[in-house]
Here is the input.
Amino acid sequence: MKRTLSILFVASLSLGCDDRTKSPASAISNQVPPDVISPATVQAALPSTDPKQSPTTATQPTTDPAESVKHLPTTLMMIKDRAFTLEVADDDEEQERGLMFRNSMPEDCGMIFIFLNEAPRGFWMKNTLIPLDIAYLAANGRVLNVLTMKARDESTYASAGPAQYAIELNAGTATRIGLKAGDVIAIPEVLKPLPLFRIR
Here is the structure.
């Protein structure tokens, strides 16, 4: 298969970018795709002691979030000739756990969200303690848009078109490395959910 960008891919079940020495709390997701998941998705998934409570006011769990952390596989991807270790979130549960409640993240780390198809996407920053850059990607790895998301902001940061991937990095990283709309990021074959396209 011909490809325009070289990829270094490594998958493991290590702690990756969890950075537990700095933040013992877990990573709970901040993803809220419009037309797929409502802005109350995370809250709706939490147990409520009042059956009449709305999803947006559901009772928070009393257990420490760190107790339910799932160690995600990581992949080493090249973005603008820089190597980043990205945790891989490729199912609903993992996408409902993300970078929430983390006090910090190493500058060369982040998370990639993998969806089954291209569709309009949107993320929010509820309970996310650090600001983040998000890059939305089409199925062929082309960057649709790059946004900087404010910590704890509950508004929706939407993709500029149908996206199949989203990559979160520390805020300011996209500017530092020159990542912008129109760039192409090579997606490792093992991460592609559907073999319906190729990067030429």
Summary: The longest strand covers residues 109-119. The CA atoms of residues 110 and 169 lie 5 Å apart. Strands lie at 74-79, 82-89, 109-119, 122-123, 132-137, 143-149, 157-158, 163-170.
